[in-house]
Amino acid sequence: SSASPLLAVRDVSVVFGGIVALNGISFNMQKGQILGLIGPNGAGKTTLFNCLSRLYQPSKGDILLEGESILTRPPHRIAEIGIGRTFQNVALFPNMSVIDNVRVGAHCRTNSDIVSDSLRMPWIRSTEKALNKKVDDILGYLDLRSVGHTTVSGLPFGTQKRVELARALAAEPKILLLDEPAGGLNHEEVYILGDLIRRIRDDRGITVLLVEHHMGMVMSTADYVVALNFGRKLAEGTPTQVQNDPDVIKAYLGSK
Ligand code: ATP
């Protein structure tokens, strides 16, 4: 593939005690790509996701964003370098409104700018106004304006997932990491979410990594798929290529 990928995973291994959770994983993500990461239970998907979001430090290998290693960055700084994420079980502030949750996301990215601007510029309120506008735009984009002032805990699970997406988008990520976004959703909601993810990519050029058990969603949403098994890369390619790969078929049949 192309000479300069947005994200490069290079020979990443993770060992927990004696267990090799990831064994020399390499792949590239191109800008604007939706990459689906699949594999049977225990394949290493969550471990890789946690490396990308800086919760785990690989035992070996490197992860490069626009050619620069992310492994020297502390986990709480990843939003600033353009990595956004959602969680398997929604991790919003349940007692805060939708608007305030999304504002938190926007601040993750812009907080230090706002503080330094306010020291120099008396017209700082314009920054605050821009922030409000950004939050409002995102709420409109994800059809959340009508629940903007609603407390998150009072919303249906599917809507909470959309709020989480809104919060992640507010930080203006270059790459969005989605941890099993289809989990807990019904059939219709899964495909609505898949369409939404594609729309976000099409409209905003955001690159998406999708860790997902729901094979139908991966196959209909992703442009490219990487399949793991027992911590190794089993196959990669278009959804059709990976779906028809004999090793992938065998791995899934073997895992009940
Ligand atoms: P699932 O689909 O069930 O979530 P997965 O593909 O996400 O599975 P991982 O959770 O990444 O797989 O697990 C990969 C391997 O690493 C498994 O053998 C698991 O038991 C082991 N493992 C994962 N996290 C830890 C940890 N914190 N400590 C020890 N072993 C771990």
UniProtKB/TrEMBL annotation:
Gene3D superfamilies: P-loop containing nucleotide triphosphate hydrolases (3.40.50.300). InterPro entries: AAA+_ATPase, ABC_AA/LPS_Transport, ABC_transporter-like_ATP-bd, BCA_ABC_TP_C, P-loop_NTPase. Residues 7-255 form the ABC transporter domain. The keyword Metal-binding does not apply. One of its GO terms (molecular function) is ATP hydrolysis activity. Keywords: ATP-binding, Nucleotide-binding, Transport. SUPFAM superfamilies: P-loop containing nucleoside triphosphate hydrolases. PROSITE patterns: ABC_TRANSPORTER_2. The keyword Signal does not apply. It holds the Pfam family ABC_tran. GO terms for cellular component: plasma membrane. Involved in beta-(1-->2)glucan export. Transmembrane domains (TMD) form a pore in the inner membrane and the ATP-binding domain (NBD) is responsible for energy generation. This is ABC transporter ATP-binding protein. It comes from Rhodopseudomonas palustris (strain ATCC BAA-98 / CGA009). The gene is ilvG.
